[in-house]
Design a protein that fits this description.
Elements (H helix, E strand, L loop, with lengths): L1 E5 L4 E5 L8 E6 L2 E5 L5 E7 L1 H4 L13
Antiparallel strand pairs: 1-2, 2-5, 3-4, 4-5
């Protein structure tokens, strides 16, 4: 999984499946784009105007639980 934030375009991207081809995109809610592969699996999420929608868009915290 890869998370990136582009300050210039104010877009937060979460790549769930690296290298997957996007077959379909859907704007689930205004400014939230979901990308799917040919099998209908979610492969990435893009959040437009991220600085207005996400707390600290330029900071990522990762946590696993066991």
């Amino acid at each position: 999984m890869k998370v990136s934030y582009d300050q210039k375009s104010d877009v937060l991207s979460v790549i769930l499946k690296d290298g997957a081809s996007v077959s379909e995109s859907d704007e689930d809610k205004p400014g939230v784009i979901l990308d799917y592969d040919e099998g209908g699996n979610l492969v990435s999420i893009e959040i437009l105007d991220a600085s207005k929608r996400v707390t600290e868009a330029d900071k990522v915290e990762f946590q696993t639980t066991g």
